[in-house]
Write a structure and sequence with these properties.
Blueprint lengths: L1 H13 L3 E5 L5 H9 L8 H8 L5 E9 L2 E13 L3 E11 L8 H15 L4 E4 L3 H9 L3 E5 L2 E4 L29 H9 L6 E7 L2 E9 L6 E9 L3 H17 L4 E4 L6 H9 L2 E3 L4 E6 L24
Parallel strand pairs: 4-5, 10-11
Antiparallel strand pairs: 1-2, 2-3, 3-4, 5-13, 6-13, 7-11, 7-12, 8-9, 9-10
Helix pairs in contact: 1-4
């Protein structure tokens, strides 16, 4: 922390014309323009409103301006984790190219950390790409895992008749996960301004939330299972059959999901024929409460695709 304070002091001296402040709704057009100048995955004003203003979570976007021009931003959402822990989940970290390596990211990090500490946050979390991973590591975060995707690229090849009747819902209460209640699901899925999500349900304890994504280059249609809840192997197989019927009807080429290698769901998916495909997605953690050292170990976490804002 002392190093961050010293960096911030130095960066302010070197960049006296940079203004750091919370975003307001009038900043939306500049946010969208800067975002879309860097990413193939485009955004819009509706996303800006949804992510930072139309949410029941505490959500802030801190911005950097130079001569009234937006040159960088860094967002944070305060989420509950299991175990009565609050996390500051970082989103949308971006610095305009001409202003990189000037230390402005340290000014934004200081604003984020001050805000989160004031709100009682115990641990910071993020699921960035490779560029973001490098940026977070430079800010003192730890990159504790590279999260790969589990994929079936032939929907007719899925095995059946798995062994045993293991509980697959990652039900180990010791695992830390992002809490997903009805309010969260309404905001995350029903109100999303870009993606359309569809639940596929056996019953209240056995379901998945799905979405479709069309690759703009290949034209392939991906089906993502962004959240999975299931109690027994047999239930999951029935659920997966239902998913396959719907995906084939929509001409889906590839079915994807996430499951960490230490969870029961991972072993079940692998047994059913899902393959691990490397992906440029990392899980980064920074502790505020030093008593939570266990959260620096990926084996103490459970993550779903929907925990990352890109899904």
């Amino acid at each position: 922390m002392a190093d961050l304070i010293e960096y911030v002091k130095r960066v302010k001296e070197l960049n006296p014309d940079i203004i750091i402040r919370e975003a307001d709704q009038a900043d939306g057009e500049q946010f969208v323009a800067l975002f879309n100048s860097y990413y193939k995955r485009k955004t819009n004003l509706a996303y800006f409103q949804w992510q930072f203003f139309n949410t029941h979570f505490e959500s802030k976007l801190f911005t950097a301006f130079h001569d009234d021009k937006l040159i960088g931003y860094y967002g944070v959402k305060i989420y509950p984790l299991s175990g009565d822990i609050l996390t500051g989940f970082a989103v949308d970290l971006l610095i305009h190219e001409p202003f990189r390596k000037t230390g402005i990211v340290f000014l934004l990090e200081a604003a984020i950390m001050d805000h989160c500490k004031a709100k009682g946050v115990s641990v910071m979390t993020a699921l960035p790409n490779a560029y973001g991973n490098a940026a977070f590591r430079s800010l003192g975060w730890k990159s504790i895992a590279k999260v790969d995707t589990l994929v079936i690229d032939d929907l007719n090849s899925i095995s059946s008749g798995t062994k045993g009747n293991t509980i697959v819902n990652n039900s180990n209460s010791a695992l830390t996960k992002f809490v997903k209640d009805d309010q969260y699901r309404n905001w995350r899925y029903s109100s999303h301004p870009i993606y359309n999500y569809e639940p596929i349900i056996l019953d209240e304890n056995n379901y998945t939330i799905t979405k479709l994504f069309t690759d703009p280059v290949s034209g392939n249609i991906f089906g993502d299972m962004v959240e999975v809840s299931c109690t027994q192997v047999q239930n999951f197989e029935l659920l997966l059959l239902k998913v396959l019927v719907q995906m084939k009807a929509k001409n889906v080429h590839i079915l994807t999901t996430w499951a960490l290698p230490h969870t029961p769901l991972y072993f079940l998916l692998k047994e059913l024929g899902f393959k691990t495909v490397p992906q440029e997605r990392f899980f980064c953690v920074k502790l505020i409460n030093s008593n939570l050292e266990k959260l620096y170990q990926i084996n103490n976490w459970d993550l779903a695709q929907s925990d990352a804002e890109i899904f």
